[in-house]
Design a protein that fits this description.
23 strands, five-stranded antiparallel β-sheet, seven-stranded mixed β-sheet, Penicillin-binding protein 2a (Domain 2), 23 helices, alpha+beta
């Protein structure tokens, strides 16, 4: 008898065999279906994924659009700059690498480590910039010692260049790295971390026009992300070009005349509002920001008591001093308070109740009418006229010149200044307006505040008969093909019809300020061209006592922060005005001796340029 039964005699074993076979067949069936799905149905999808793993796309930064002045002179350009970058996937011993770089280029290891940490969010296949704008000598050192610097390469990028140095820096603005907050905004949807964008000025206002179109480098990498070869390249396209209304000759003349003083100069075309010069000093070097400002440089800028980062043309608010007297004169003439021939006696002071308000000329001006009051800047005449006219009438006249409101300049942060009224004071302080406040407001002191661009706009309106133009800075935008994409159109902010007799009386008096003996700006006159103006000295603190003024005249030093501001507003020529200039010198002292010479320098440059152009024109005409 057999001890091992035949298979047919063991149904349990047969059943297990069948089940095992079915499981094996099922598993192989599932694997076959999965393979069919991957290789047939999903072939396009997985080919795309494979391509993405193999191919990397690296953006190539485009050159930003160039900026020119009204005559086509280059103001802002680009230059090639070398940067030392790291390919992180090729860096082995980072500490040793940074030690080698530190010795070779004289940089701190901590600075390299900081840049490394900041770049951790970038894709690993993208070069991480360690040092920007290193110079040709450093670039050559890196290349010569490349064997000791594994993973380090030198890149060439376009960097902003400023042929005129720091001239008009507040106008151009500066660049900075795009922030995470920026990248979350719709306007920066196509930007990448690490890109430079306009932070202030024209660079910010025209960011989308100036930026250009990034190029693209398509590279093949291995499984470790190391670049094997470059497949294709799309070249970057430069941004559009800006042509400004600025005249470089006038800009340089104003910058040179203001020199190391703090303040602002604005020159306008009186018939269009085009800005011919835009100066705010002290200034900063925009090239610092293009390459990356250091902590030490930034500290020097923000700790400077003269505030070089503040755009004083738009944001500087100053009492206008005696430059406000034309507004008071027109308000009084239009209200019928006085006539041009109305005279008041100036004995050096004016009493109102128990208060005494002094004239700048201690001995007084004698019998004074409107012409003499403006020519010699008599305070007493304006004290009395302002008091009789009233603050609300004065405010109305000022507002008709655009004072107390922004000019509409396209930069953000423009300040409006302040033209006080009775209702304003009641709302602001909850108290009534006093006559004494009208008295000091009549000479541009007290609550009255203006900006340099407002003063220039006001003066241009005085010159052209009452039209307040919106200040314009961009003449046109030109695309890569040379086609004009946008063209300036002069825009009127307001047009005020002053009495011809009143306006003429004020204009004639302003002309005498500069061109007649005894005028406060007589020493700044020009021999061949007559221009009209008004000096101003705005007090920063209370009126000085007689003893303080005597000490000052004796040569005792007055602390800088307590010195008066110097102002001068003007236009030229007197018979057919073309240009208006406003000058503010912070803590400069007297407008006649400090601010007026700055305007004179601008006019000398302006009319010399006009003469040169006219001479050239005659030569061409004679040649024809």
């Amino acid at each position: 008898m057999s001890l091992n039964p035949a298979p047919e005699e063991t149904p349990g074993l047969r059943r297990r065999f069948i089940i095992s076979s079915l499981i094996v067949v099922t598993v192989f069936g599932i694997l076959s279906l999965r393979l069919w799905s991957l290789q047939v149905l999903g072939v396009d999808h997985y080919r795309d994924l494979s391509e993405r793993n193999r191919i990397r796309y690296v953006a190539i930064q485009p050159p930003r659009g160039a900026v020119f002045d009204r005559h086509g002179q280059l103001l802002v350009d680009n230059r090639p700059a070398f940067s030392v970058s790291a390919l992180r996937q090729q860096v082995g011993d980072r500490k040793q690498l940074f030690a080698n770089l530190s010795v070779l280029l004289g940089v701190e290891v901590e600075a390299l480590e900081e840049r490394w940490r900041k770049g951790q969010g970038l894709p690993r296949y993208r070069p991480l910039p360690l040092l920007e704008d290193v110079g040709r000598e450093a670039m050559e050192k890196v290349q010569e010692n490349s064997i000791d610097l594994p993973g380090i390469l030198v890149e060439v990028k376009p960097l902003r260049a400023y042929p005129q140095g720091d001239v008009a820096a507040h106008l151009f603005g500066y660049l900075g790295e795009v922030t995470e907050e920026d990248l979350r905004k719709t306007d920066f949807a196509n930007y990448r971390s690490g890109e430079m964008i306009g932070k202030t000025g024209l660079e910010r206002l025209f960011e989308q026009k100036l930026r250009g179109q990034a190029g693209l480098k398509r590279i093949e990498v291995n499984v470790r992300g190391r670049e094997l070869r470059q497949v294709t390249t799309r070249n970057p396209l430069p941004g559009n070009q800006l042509y400004l209304t600025i005249d470089t000759t006038l800009q340089l003349a104003a910058e040179k005349a203001l020199a190391d003083k703090a303040g602002a100069v604005v020159a306008l075309d009186v018939n269009t509002g085009e800005i011919l010069a835009f100066v705010s000093r002290p200034t900063f070097d925009p090239a610092w920001f293009a390459r990356g400002v250091t902590n030490e440089e930034w500290r020097d800028l923000i700790e400077n008591p003269q505030h070089p980062m503040t755009n004083k043309v738009l944001r500087g608010q100053y009492p206008p001093g005696s430059t406000f007297k034309m507004v008071v004169a027109l308000a009084a003439l239009e209200a019928g308070t006085v006539k041009p021939s109305t005279k008041f006696q100036c004995d050096g002071s004016f009493k109102l109740g128990s208060y005494e308000y002094r004239c700048w000329k201690k001995r007084g001006h004698g019998s004074v009418d409107l012409h003499k009051a403006i020519k010699e800047s008599c305070d007493v005449w304006f004290y009395r006229v302002g008091l009789e006219t009233g603050i609300d009438q004065i405010a109305s006249a000022a507002q008709r010149f655009g004072l107390g409101q922004t000019t509409g300049f396209p930069f953000g942060g423009e300040r409006s200044g302040l033209i006080p009224t009775r209702s304003w004071k009641k709302k602001r302080f909850g108290t009534s307006w006093y006559d004494g406040e009208t008295v000091i407001s009549s000479i541009g002191q007290g609550f009255v505040l203006t900006t340099p661009i407002q003063l220039a706009s006001m003066t241009a309106a005085l010159a052209n008969g009452g039209t307040v133009w919106k200040p314009q800075i961009v003449q046109k935008v030109v695309d890569l093909e040379g086609d004009t994409e946008w063209m300036l159109k002069p825009e009127k902010l307001m047009e005020t019809a002053w009495s011809a007799e009143s306006l003429k009386a004020v204009q004639t008096a302003m002309a005498s300020v500069v061109n007649d003996v005894g005028g406060t700006a007589w020493r700044s006159r020009l021999e061949k061209v007559r221009f009209a103006g008004k000096t101003g000295t705005a007090q920063v603190v209370r009126r000085k006592s007689d003893e303080e003024e005597e000490a000052e005249q004796a040569g005792d030093e007055v602390p800088y922060q307590y010195r008066d501001h110097a102002l001068f507003v003007s236009y030229a020529p007197t018979d057919s005005p073309q240009i208006a200039v406003a000058v503010v010198v912070e803590h400069g002292g007297h407008g006649s001796s400090v601010a007026a010479p700055v305007a004179k320098a601008v006019y000398e440059a302006y009319f010399a340029e006009k003469t040169e152009h006219n001479d050239t024109g005659r030569q061409v005409a004679s040649g024809d």
